[in-house]
Design goal:
Blueprint lengths: L6 H12 L15 H15 L2 E8 L3 E8 L3 E3 L3 E2 L7 E10 L9 H7 E11 L11 H6 L4 E9 L14 E4 L2 E3 L8 H17 L9 E3 L4 E5 L5 E6 L2 E7 L3
Parallel strand pairs: 1-10, 3-7, 4-13
Antiparallel strand pairs: 1-2, 5-6, 5-10, 5-11, 6-7, 8-9, 8-12, 12-13
Helix pairs in contact: 1-2, 3-5
Length: about 250
């Protein structure tokens, strides 16, 4: 981490936006490396409180994670605060931990720690004004742009491995949305969860019972374009959200 970069100052700027200030044109200076980005994440979470994690790939390649505030996790059907005009939505699966998971956890231990897997939405709206102009490390410092998680129903049969596509049906404003769905197995998520146990402990935020871990977009990100509602279904499992307008 460069001595010229102050993660506490960057965190204060992001926290101001969390609390209602205008979005930032960028972090000045930007984080010079992943350690600096994680230091910003940690300072934000110390202020807001943790409880959730986002599995992510930096620049689409390298395994990393976003520490997210637990206060941003809501239940299906919630009315969410107004979002920026460029906000997006993703359909995800969310792991709910039924036990603490320490550093060094094996894949078997990580699997045993999962109490349930739920259908979920992630809202994407960075505290940065134009995510197209932000560097990957700036977005990483900002929790990879996450703006909240909506938890839906438990996915039936998730213990069978969730291999292949789930057959997600998505509707925005009660209109069907045709969008490609990515396939991802439970084994892939467990591998990431084992890694996350060590990473989270190193950040001073060890994985605890009740933590929510979103595993990456199955659909999206898709622009909300001012939608007032979203609904997704996999068989009997559903997740929905309503969006207050500015």
């Amino acid at each position: 981490m460069s001595a010229a970069f102050d993660p506490e100052a960057a965190a204060r700027a992001l926290l101001a936006v969390h609390r209602g200030a205008p979005r930032l044109p960028g972090l000045t200076p930007p984080p010079p490396d992943p350690d600096a980005a994680y230091a910003v994440q940690g300072a934000v979470i110390r202020a807001l409180g943790g409880g959730a994690w986002k599995m992510a790939l930096l620049a689409g390649r390298d395994r990393h994670a976003g520490a997210l505030p637990g206060q941003g996790v809501v239940r299906s059907g919630a009315l969410l605060r107004p979002l920026p005009a460029d906000a997006c939505i993703e359909v995800e699966t969310a792991l709910i931990l039924g036990a603490d998971l320490p550093a060094g956890a094996t894949a078997a231990a990580a699997t045993d720690a999962i109490a349930e897997v739920r259908l979920a939405f992630e809202l994407v709206a960075p505290r940065l004004a134009d995510r197209r102009m932000a560097s990957p490390l700036e977005l990483m410092a900002d929790g990879f742009g996450s703006a909240g998680i909506v938890l839906g129903d438990v996915l039936p049969g998730w213990r069978d491995g969730m291999t292949g596509r789930l057959g997600i049906e998505l509707r925005l404003n009660d209109q069907p949305v045709a969008a490609p769905e990515a396939a991802a197995s439970l084994a892939e998520a467990v591998g990431f969860l084992s890694w996350l146990a060590g990473h989270a402990a190193a950040q001073g935020l060890p994985l605890r019972r009740g933590n929510v871990v979103i595993t990456g977009a199955r659909i999206g990100p898709l622009p909300l374009d001012g939608a007032r509602s979203a609904h997704a279904r996999v068989g009997p499992a559903e997740v929905s959200a309503r969006f207050a307008q500015p």
